[in-house]
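Two proteins follow. First one:
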Amino acid sequence: MAPVLSLLVQAYGLGVPTAMHPNPLLAPQANLMASVAKGIFGGELPWMMIGIGAMIGALIIIIDELLKKSGAAWHSPVLACAVGIYLPLELSVPIFAGGLVAHLVERRFRPSDAEGDRERIHQRGTLFSAGLITGEALMGIFIAIPIVVVGSADVLALPDSLHFGGWLGLALLTAVGVLLYKISVNQPAST
């Protein structure tokens, strides 16, 4: 793991933007833990913010319990809300898109409340999604190799004539969502 991490730090930087790496890889969990450790050992922990976070968490739990008691079709789990608040928007959008696809798959099959039934329905989509995440991580590592060897972040840059803006990314995200839905709903016969 150490050589891979060293390669990524050399190619992209990690956590804190620098002159050499103005857009480093995000490390929200590592930054959070570093901030907590610095705050505890340095005596600079922002207790007001921690208190506000605890109150928001308690409020979300109360709302979720009220929704459960009223028989609402949806809930507000505290962990999902916390991740949505904590992660940057560029990471929250794919998570939301995956949740939307999972919701559409559930509506198509209307699973029972049995946990095994829900797991069976989501199994193929989960495997496909895990493959996408793994593939993205591996591609990030493979792309870092020529960046470090050549010493330039622009070694694999496309010419300006091939820049399509955010629309191409949105189209690809939509295509992956549709493919994920199709893979999830094409269930093999249950055994």
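Second one, unrelated to the first:
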Amino acid sequence: MREVEIVGKKVGDEHPCYVLAEIGINHNGDLDLAKRLVDAAVQAGCNAVKFQKRTPELCVPEAQRQVMRETPWGIMPYIEYRHRVEFSEDEYDAIDKHCRENAIPWFASCWDLPSLQFFRRFNPPAYKIPSALITDMELLSACRETGKPLIMSTGMSTMEQIRKAVEVVGQERLVLCHCTSTYPCPPAELNLRMITTLRDEFNCPIGYSGHEVGLQTTTAAAVLGACLIERHITLDRAMWGSDQAASVEPHGLARLVRDIRVIETAMGDGRKRVYESEHAVRRKLRPVSTLEPRPGPE
């Protein structure tokens, strides 16, 4: 059985879908907003929340650093904006405390080695490898060395790149997520059948990281067997930020979790049976036939 355990919750084919609420940078550098997003995930019944951590000087290409951008704080160089949306150690301490008080696990996508090292102090239950870093072999190796469960997205990657990344991180503690890195992603490019393709090739749980508008295609991913489902969350899709439009608001997040749980109940085990609730209907609607099973001797 392919499974990975995250804080006592098993992720795999025979277990309930692990629902991960991606806060990312939708907090826009506002600690209070980040806490409210955590609260929304808790109220919706999510299994965990996730943030993103970058070292701007390493993650922002030189040519983009001084490009002027409109931001909630006015027009400023892109590198300054990237610093504005990064939380400090004290702010992450506050997030850690808030998540512990609300009994929800939290971790992060670490976009560079210093960010990975930074998060070690919080002893996160897992690490996320974002699609953009799937070809960074040094970071992949460092993630594997943590010994923690890894969740790796596969957007904008070829099958050969995915195979190489899986070879580097190993499959023992890996959840591999199908993903298309377009924000928001049109339905025609979601390619949900890739969930089945990845399940057939790799010996690890397969998840889905969605960036689409709406919920129906995400619930379809659960039907196709995604063991983990990740969606970006926001308090308002009209808020400023590049990920907001592809995110789910609190009421939608609650609906998504509810529908995934209903789908899990409805899927069954694939073995045909006549349910007790059908017996009265059968007696009423079906003519007596020699094909019907007859009671045996007392």
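SUMMARY FIELD: DSSP finds eleven helices and twelve strands in the chain. Residues 3-270 form a domain with the TIM Barrel fold (CATH 3.20.20.70).
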